[in-house]
Amino acid sequence: MKQDWKWVTLGDACDKGSSNVSQNQLGNEAGNYPIHGASGFIKNVSFYHNEKPYLSIVKDGSGVGRVTKMEAYTSVIGTLQYIYPKDGVDLSYLYYSLIAIDFKKYVAGAAIPHIYFKDYKNEPFLWTPLSEQQRIVAFLDEAFAAIAQAKAHAEQNLQNAKALFESYLRGVFENGNWETKTIEMVCDEIFAGGDAPKNNYSLEPNEKHNIPIYANAVKDRGLYGYTDFARVSKPCVTIAARGSGTGHTELRSKSFLPIVRLIVCIPNTNLISAEFLKYTIDNLVIQRSGSAIPQLTVPMIKDYYIPVPTIDQQMQLIERAETLRAQTQRLEEVYRQKLDDLEELKKSVLAKAFRGELVGYHQI
Known about the structure:
alpha+beta, four-stranded antiparallel β-sheet
């Protein structure tokens, strides 16, 4: 570290300010000055708290510890706090210093997490001459721009990998010259799950309760718990019928109990396999009822037409689809790892910057 650099505390480098504005006070406000909350811009109002650029940090609730560079003539509501650089501290240098801090260690409160400036103001801060701060900022700006571009490419490649499989399925179903039937015509049963057991179940499997209960959810494949009786014991396809996961399908081959908001389709295996039924349902552009909460109903599902090749053709198509799925999943894993590596690179660059270890720019 250079001789004219030194370690001080964050409190030596900046001041904090508070806002007493709550979002519910803004209903009748109108004007030319933006006010922001934890999720970003709220609206324009008739006042502003800051006539110069500044930093904001989320101090309460979701996103606690997130730091943002803010424009002049703006304000924030009370769930955020103002951070102002002291004389001799560059605003962008302070910003990078703050985002290098792990604020999780300062979070208090379980229901509504919050952080206090009095706790994190003692974080070490690398004080350098203003010209050195600006040099470090220029390095970080360039490095982060390169990382952002690399992330954008990786994210696009990830989306392309996902779209490849979906495009293949669409091509199969759009170009095949097959007979079509309604889902009702190729299924032995289509029904909705019933109420959840009130007492006869457990969250973990045991000697008595070892039959899985599945509900309308995507997480953990919708596993709700375990009971001692099954409603379904044949291979089938389940469809999430309500909420954000509406239309999500699962192929199930073991006995289980379906409960609320889960539609079960048990195929007639002389006409269609459960695997092929899932592929056809996944390929449908399903119309959902309900504007506030999207949902599907059994009558809606029954009336959809799907292509029905012969069983032999179905097996050939499934084999090809599964091969492509495996290939695209491997690609997705590569690009997800790339995104993780780029996030780690950002942390590494910040750590080096604020340990005084930057000696030059290396192209990313």
